[in-house]
Design goal:
By secondary structure, the chain is an alpha/beta fold. Helices cover about 40% and strands about 15% of the residues. It has one domain: Divalent-metal-dependent TIM barrel enzymes (TIM Barrel, Alpha-Beta Barrel).
């Protein structure tokens, strides 16, 4: 049997004692596409020479969705990311409601989102989608959890990201549906997959608790995989997780969970 999905893994979270070029080459040898975070933290020449196929990377350097100055920063650095993404042939560029700093905490925390902020966020994403169409690339906005990993990030819940993407309704703006974050924040994973399915650009997975590979926690990922296949999803699934033991074993467990 072969996976009905394109499988990828986040190189940032595996083999932390190895250099990034080694990690990318090892993932490629094992048949996985690669996800990376902030491209500014890496030597671009090394990324090009790695031979990796990049599933996604961060699509901005700084900025925010919901205020004028933040939106201009987001758009400017999204354009920089487009150029880097083209150089590396990255399939999808990832966004959040605000820039993330150390340990995933928001650069500009926000506890209350007003109606005016919703309208501004929608406008910002519409502008980014138009730029993406001009350059033939795809941006995604990722849902996050605020209870454990990302307190103070606006537009973090899956309900929020789905509302924004469906309101913009542009083929060059998709959802990065992170099921680890959904499980912590909302639960009901299969139903959220069904609601989001028309807008999904990529699905990311890790188990709960611990943010490790499928099979280490409470999520029935084989059941989720069967449901995704039944509803017609055939896109990328990326393991954005730490390994509970050897990285090769974690990747094997991930592949098994999504092979039907």
């Amino acid at each position: 049997m072969t996976p009905p999905f394109t499988l990828a893994a986040c190189a940032e979270m595996l083999w932390p004692d190895k250099p990034m070029d080694w990690r990318l080459k090892r993932l490629t040898e094992m048949g996985f596409q690669c996800g990376i975070w902030n491209w500014g933290n890496h030597d671009l020449g090394m990324l090009e020479r790695s031979g990796a196929v990049f599933s996604s990377m961060t699509g901005y350097v700084r900025g925010r969705l919901a205020d004028d100055d933040g939106a201009e920063d987001l758009l400017a650095t999204a354009k920089q990311s487009i150029e880097v993404g083209k150089r590396l042939n990255v399939a999808r560029l990832n966004l959040h409601g605000t820039g993330l700093g150390d340990r995933g905490l928001p650069a500009t925390p926000c506890q209350t989102v007003t109606g005016a902020m919703w309208l501004k966020a929608q406008d910002t994403l519409s502008r980014i989608a138009d730029v993406a169409e001009q350059h033939g690339v795809t941006f995604m906005i990722e849902n996050l959890n605020v209870a454990v990993d990302h307190p103070g990030v606006p537009f973090a819940r899956i309900e929020d990201t789905l509302a924004l993407v469906s309101a913009v309704n542009h083929p060059h703006l998709r959802l990065n549906l992170d099921l680890y974050h959904v499980q912590i924040g909302e639960g009901n994973l299969i139903e959220w997959c069904r609601k989001c399915q028309p807008y999904i650009g990529e699905i990311q997975v890790a188990d709960v608790p611990g943010r490790k590979e499928p099979g280490t926690g409470e999520i029935n990922y084989p059941g989720v995989a069967r449901a995704l296949k039944a509803m017609g999803y055939r896109g990328p699934v990326c393991m954005e997780a730490f390994a509970s033991g050897a990285a090769e074993d974690a990747l094997a467990a991930f592949r098994t969970a999504f092979t039907l």
